[in-house]
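haha ok so turns out i had the wrong file open the whole time. this is the CORRECT one, sorry everyone. sequence first:
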Amino acid sequence: MPGLRLAQELSGEGQHEPAALEYRRLALSVTDPKARGGLFWVTAYEYTRARQWNLAPALLDRAEDSDRELKSVALLLRAEVASAEKKHVEAVYYLQSAVGEETTSDMRKFVVRRVAGEHLRAGQSAQARVVLSQAPGNEAAALAALQSYERERDKSPVLGGVLGLIPGLGYMYAGEYANGLRSLILNGLFMGAMVYSGVEDQWGAFAVISFFELTWYSGSIYGGIDAAQRYNRARQERCLEAVQGQAAFVPDFKQLPIVSLQFRF
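then structure:
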């Protein structure tokens, strides 16, 4: 098909938005419904790779209108969009709806892992455990990681901020001992300099040092909050790595405009 090679080359070079424009142009120029549907689908796919999430749903609607057989692969892409927009429960719905009687084993494995991952992102670890427990394959490693995750507890950002009133302690609460020690030393030096300048009646220096110490001290408080949030994100990401791994799908570009997905784990 004329123009298809250009779109594929643009995509391969990481120029996903120009590739999407080229695929869309091709979709509008063909008359075959299956080819048009496939080209609209890959246009939406390229926009998701360009992080233009808001442009994908309308194109997926057009893909399904052109070829109803694209419903399941359109649902997978809708789930990607919902997940990127942090609508994790919606992503679960799309993923589960994509599974049908004709679903391949690779797609079922992909859906199980991604559904469990979306539940985890939504703070629903119990539902993630149920999904993995009922999976047809062996998900023992993922279940073990999930059980370990549930045994541990998140750090409280509020408590991290309160502990940050004592310079460095908020960081240490979240396990960031180097940052905590750095905060303690810097605040200690500035506080010592404040005391010294006050005793020596160097009020100009006292004012300047106080300004900088206020910055460092407030940084200790907010740093304790951020450190707790970083700890929680890192803990969840480690569990997600074990639960869903590198589960992803890509279209077989050689088959376009027919949409054929390859699943990777």
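Strands lie at 248-251, 261-264.
again sry for the mixup
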